[in-house]
Amino acid sequence: MADKSSSNAYWKANIRMIQLFLVIWFVASFGLGILLRPMLSGIGVGGTDLGFWFAQQGSILVFLVLIFVYAWRMNKLDIEHGVEE
Amino acid sequence: MDQFTLNLIVVGATFALYFGIAIWARAGSTAEFYAAGRGVHPVLNGMATGADWMSAASFISMAGIIAAGGYDTSAYLMGWTGGYVLLAMLLAPYLRKFGKFTVPEFIGDRFYSPTARLVAVVCLITASVTYVIGQMTGVGVAFSRFLEVKASTGLYIGATVVFFYAVLGGMKGITYTQVAQYVVLILAYTIPAVFISLQLTGNPVPPLGLFSEHTASGMPLLAKLDAVVTDLGFSRYTGHTDTTLNMFLFTMSLMIGTAGLPHVIVRFFTVPKVADARSSAGWALVFIALLYLVAPAVGAMARLNLISNIYPNGTAEAPIAYESRPDWMKNWETTGLLKFEDKNGDGLIQYYNDKSTDEKFATAGWAGSELTVNNDIMVLANPEIARLPGWVVALVAAGGLAAALSTAAGLLLAISSAISHDLIKGQLNPNISEKGELLAARISMAVAIAVATYLGLNPPGFAAQTVALAFGLAAASIFPALMMGIFSKRINNKGAVAGMVTGLLVTVVYIFLHKGWFFLPDTNSFSDTDPLLLSIKSTSFGAVGALINFAVAYVVSNATEEPPLEVQELVESIRVPRGAGVATGH
Fold this sequence. Notes:
Chain A has one domain (about 5-80). Helix content of chain A is about 75%, strand content about 5%. Chain A contains two helices and two strands, in the order H-E-E-H. In chain A, helix 1 packs antiparallel against helix 2 (about 50-80). Chain A starts with a helix and ends in a 5-residue tail after the last helix.
């Protein structure tokens, strides 16, 4: 078992990463897909606009990348802090 | 060979496959029954989670709702995928580290309270039973068409089939069966979509076809669709007609509901390591995204095909005569899910938005829309509408059933383990033998199937809408408790119980006020077209319920004592991967 200060640093680093990834998660779906759509209506994508694309396709692709990047970064973080299995 | 025989052969062959696997992998011990040992590879686990996840709501119902609602229904697409990001980052790895079998078990231990565990069991059963009702609706629709029986008969057949393999198989059987079901359902969903995308746009990849040129008109597909639907008095397909508030809350409810549904969470208890729990969520989303990227294309293309079936010479010309209607309409008329009523007596099928204020319809002598098409038939009818070969039609039937049955089985497992493991073994009779526990699990499955079948006869909405209600309930009750249990050491037993109880109650009451008490027809005081609060529909209220849950838990916890030291240490330990052993019963 890792000592307490090291696992505190590990948890803080994890929280920072989660915060950053949640911002991207929010912007790609609620932001570009819903709230910002009217502002982006000038950008055309295949017969409609960018907001429509994000709501029906783009957000899902962003989610996929987010999970795998998070898993990869956390595996590295586990090893750096000596808490991997 | 006629279509009916072909359907029977293809559906029969897939069922034989599932049962064969279930018998081969039959569970022997309680550990295998609940959590499949530990030998499930993340990629296989991802596929099984995909099958577990994609139910009648995703397969049968969602594209039909998108076809009818266009951009406004994007909430289903974002909500039912975005929840996996929350699962991977906020819940799955920590619950795997905790290393027990069920969600109520975690809540009971973390909040050091049998009451908390009991409340979690109630939340879990409420959300899961609502979810199973939606599946039963889908099973009824699928069987009524493909076995050419009444919807109620289809429901009984489906319930019997679910009972046999869920009861015999347990988790291990279900895991491998669900891998097979995933393969069947994804092929069944994408093959017709590829054909239709080729027919309409010349592009064999449906998600690209959606944003390509419509070959027949030379316009972009979505622009063409906007043009024909507005011509018929409907709102623009790509337009935003729902309120931003409701769309936002609906998307949020579906996302956090995804991360709060026990039958999905329990999947992450079955991977070998904490690191695998993170990547398993990613693999699950890969397999789910394959369907979710195709679904909006299926919806848009089905809408366009439906309209060009009725108006073969364009929406400016006369529609087809009822006498010369295509075969697929005749087939679906027998189920009662598609209806024609010749309101102006001219023998033609006038299909349009009769609530439109445009006077051209009245001037042309149209007396109201004469065709009603149930949204839930769109995906199943799609290959027939596009005149695809008979084996494709049969494959879609098999896929729809795979989707509905796999999810129903996973949910029933979550319900039965909550009752036998958390309620009976955890509280009522801790000395129950392993055999007795297994028997109790099987009996509670049978009871849950009976209840869901009974309620499935009168569902509160289309399959996907009923399922959306289940997500709202999970969002308002289970997700906040789990998240606070991991990310806060300050939330105590009183706070968690108060939060779950208020979150669940407020949401249940809001849903019943709009959908009828216990979903009984005509007992509602409001409707989703004119909801109680602002523009918040009952399907979107889960996000509000979750907020209330968080707030109540925070306030109550801070007004009462800190959790004991050993509980704070438990929270510390689930935050780091090292030291995760094999899951244990106790």
